Amino acid sequence: MMQQNDNLILVGMPGAGKSTVGVILAKMTSRGFTDTDLLIQASQNRTLQDIVDTNGYGALRKIEEKVLTGLYVENHIIATGGSAIYSDLAMTHLKSMGVVIFLDADLPTLESRVHNFGTRGLAKRPDQDFADLYHERSGLYVKYADITIRCTGRTQEQVCAEIIRQTDMKC
User: Fold this and answer.
1) Which of 80, 97, 99 is nearest to 16 (CA)?
2) How many CB atoms lie within 10 A of CB 16?
3) Domain-located, residue 1
4) Residue 171 and residue 169: Cα distance in Å, rounded?
5) How far apart are the C-alpha atoms of 170 and 59, rounded to whole Å?
């Protein structure tokens, strides 16, 4: 039986550092690493952007929900796509597998990191700009998070150290 705190699940906006922090955190804590965006791409044999371009952002969200609800790993750091929080079913499943950690970066920081907004394969409405997406998702990240980590002004290593501190993990 899986323990409640077995996995650490990273959520947050594109550019918050989920994948990068996830890899570093996995190394620091001797855990496996899973990037759910890569699982989605592998399941469809195409990029996220191709899914959005061909089938629309709604199709990407449905595929993402199916991949997330079918995910069963232990002792992992899981980096989710930024849109994972749109699915209550997926987030309930992820929360049953571990601790959900919101990597919270402010809008200017995110905008400075995300230069490919139009081609990144985001599950967003065609009329949404990055700021709209940020404001739409912010409350959902807070809703599902067990822990919120402020990332603005911190290095990736500092973010990892804070996650370890707040989850009382031993390295």
Assistant:
1) 80
2) 26
3) no
4) 6
5) 40
**C-alpha–C-alpha distance, residues 111 and 124, integer Å:** 16
82 vs 87, more confident:
87
Has residue 171 been placed in a domain? Answer: no
The Cα–Cα gap between 125 and 170 comes to: 41
Distance (Å, rounded) from C-alpha 158 to C-alpha 59? 36
Q: Give the pLDDT band (50/70/90) at residue 1.
A: very low
Question: Is 160 within 8 Å of 24 (Cβ atoms)?
Answer: yes
Q: Does the residue 2 lie in any domain?
A: no
Q: Which two tokens stand for residue 44?
A: 């469809």
The CATH number for 133's domain is: 3.40.50.300
Structural domain containing residue 52? 7-166
